[in-house]
Design a protein that fits this description.
Layout lengths: L4 E10 L2 E11 L4 E5 L6 H8 L7 E6 L2 E2 L5 H8 L2 E4 L11 H12 L4 H14 L15 H13 L5 E5 L7 H18 L2 E5 L3 H6 L3 E6 L2 E7 H5 L4 H8 L14 H10 L26 H11 L6 H10 L9
Parallel strand pairs: 3-8, 3-9, 6-7, 7-8
Antiparallel strand pairs: 1-2, 1-4, 4-5, 9-10
Helix pairs in contact: 3-4, 3-5, 4-5
Length: about 325
């Protein structure tokens, strides 16, 4: 099972520019979480801070008892091996074929024999649908294949936590849907904790167990997917509906005067459609059920009284009864 990641009071700045401040959340073990936010809100910076590649000024990130912000470098380095990181562009070595790219972490960090390395690499290539492309160079394949190769490389050290940075960037809607299904299938197969950074609404609506959103240098919310998908918080509603009206502007957040003028100009006779919560993706036929589903069910029911009515209704509609319980 994946490992819980506890983020407490995290604050990151570059010079005088605060990226985000006092971010606190917990990634539940083995569940899939998504971090949303407009471009430029520091989603990738957050991802790199979780794994210890960037050092926030305040706060801590606890993984297996190790603080990835303030802990000893040796402990951070060892704990980082629990992570698999999928970069936006795959971050493949252009002069290496796909097999050698995917094998690289095994050759760098383990003493496995080449026969064992080949077995592991081919298993991971099979998981992401790349068998037969071992000899191809990154420049000879599509963007979607490069992303899948990057994901296979992230999996070869059997990570318990997988971080995916914009897995949909540069992909058409069809390839994005394939990547979405692939992420759910991987979670079913290896039960790893997963955090996906994206601004893709299709991934946000169908993949995660939990969702969060960064805006105006703060974590707007984090919780079960139904909490954000039914939220009436203006910035969340605007982002998830793709409307121009709301706090998010073209370059940055809108000022209060602009928002006030927008509100006056808004035609109140045109109702905003209530948010719809589409079913979460399920593993492909032949794969085991996701173990995270029942753990999440118990966790969400434990926080039932804290959820708004709309979120409770959405949760109830999506909850499958446990075995032996009446539907």
């Amino acid at each position: 099972m994946g490992i819980e990641v506890i983020v407490e009071g995290l604050t990151k700045s570059f010079g005088k520019q605060t990226v985000w401040q006092d971010v606190t959340l917990t990634l539940p073990p083995g569940e899939v979480s998504v971090m949303l936010g407009p471009s430029g809100t520091g989603k990738t910076v957050f991802l790199k801070s979780v794994i210890g590649l960037l050092k926030p000024e305040r706060g801590r990130v606890l993984v297996n008892g190790v603080d990835m912000v303030n802990g000893p470098e040796r402990d951070i380095y060892q704990t980082r091996k629990l992570f698999g990181l999928m970069f936006q562009d795959g971050a493949l070595f252009g002069s290496m074929n796909l097999f050698d790219n995917i094998a690289f972490p095994l050759r760098e960090h383990t003493r496995k024999k080449e026969s064992e390395i080949r077995r592991v690499v081919m298993e991971r290539m099979d998981m992401v649908g790349l068998v037969g492309s071992e000899a191809k160079l990154p420049g000879e394949i599509s963007g979607g294949m490069r992303k899948r190769a990057g994901l296979a490389r992230a999996l070869v050290l059997d990570p318990q936590i997988i971080l995916c940075d914009e897995p949909d960037s540069g992909l058409d809607p069809v390839r994005t849907s394939y990547i979405s299904q692939l992420l759910i299938d991987l979670n079913a197969q290896i039960d790893a904790t997963m955090l996906i950074v994206t601004h893709n609404l299709d991934i946000a609506a169908t993949v995660p167990d939990n969702m969060g959103m960064l805006f105006r240098r703060e974590l707007v919310a984090f919780g079960p997917r139904e909490l954000l998908l039914t939220s009436d918080v203006p910035v969340v509603r605007q982002f998830l509906s793709g409307r121009r009206e709301g706090p998010i502007g073209m370059a940055e957040e809108k000022d209060e005067a602009t928002l006030a003028m927008e509100q006056l100009a808004d035609d109140s006779t045109v109702p905003i459609a209530p948010p719809t919560v589409v079913p979460q993706l399920e593993p492909s036929p032949g794969l085991p059920p996701r173990q995270a589903v029942q753990r999440r069910r118990a966790r969400v029911l434990a926080m039932w009284d804290q959820l708004p009515a709309a979120a409770r209704t959405a949760v109830q509609a999506g909850l499958a009864p446990v075995q032996g319980e009446p539907a």
